[in-house]
Amino acid sequence: MAEAIGMMEGAFFVPKTEIFAWINKTLKVNITKIESLASGSLYCQIFDIIHPGKLSLSKVSWKAKLAHEFINNYKILQQAFLKCNISKTIEVDRLARGIYQDNLEFAQWLKRYFDLHCGGRAEAYDAVAKRGGQEPDLSFA
To answer: Is residue 37 exposed (0-12), middle (13-18) or buried (19+ Cβ within 10 Å)?
Structure first.
């Protein structure tokens, strides 16, 4: 599954504008920079759509602004990956530091994984309600 999405896979040639459109529509947010994904909160929510109940969204810090808060979000995501037997390495340090290329590649990988495993769950998913009405704080980017 996850191993089959290699670096030369078409997933890694998806432009950032397509990533933005997908995330904004799916999660009812307005990201305009890849670095806005660095907190890990939106990655967690996308994973919740793909594998409902495998991570606790109530533990995700939607207002994360500091590195240690970002790292906690990635720990939640890593635990969910383990529960689902996904061997993809999450480069927490690089993602949490907001490194553009790393966040772009992880978002591209996640988009491909979403396309392969989500089915029609995204249409019925109420992203705002799942966040408890909270808007993710993206001001750190």
So the answer is: buried
Helices (H) and strands (E) in the chain, counts: 7, 0
Identify the pLDDT of residue 1.
43
Angle 74-98-44 from CA coordinates, rounded to 5°: 30
Please give the average per-residue pLDDT across 87-93, as a whole number: 94
Burial degree of 117 (CB within 10 A; 0-12, 13-18, 19+): middle
Burial class (CB in 10 A: 0-12, 13-18, 19+), 61: buried
From CA 13, how far away is CA 85, in angstroms rounded?
26
Say if residues 46 and 26 touch (Cβ distance below 8 Å).
yes
- The first and second tokens of residue 97, run together, are 């530091």
pTM: 0.91
Helix or strand (DSSP H, E) at 8: none
* pLDDT of 6: 56
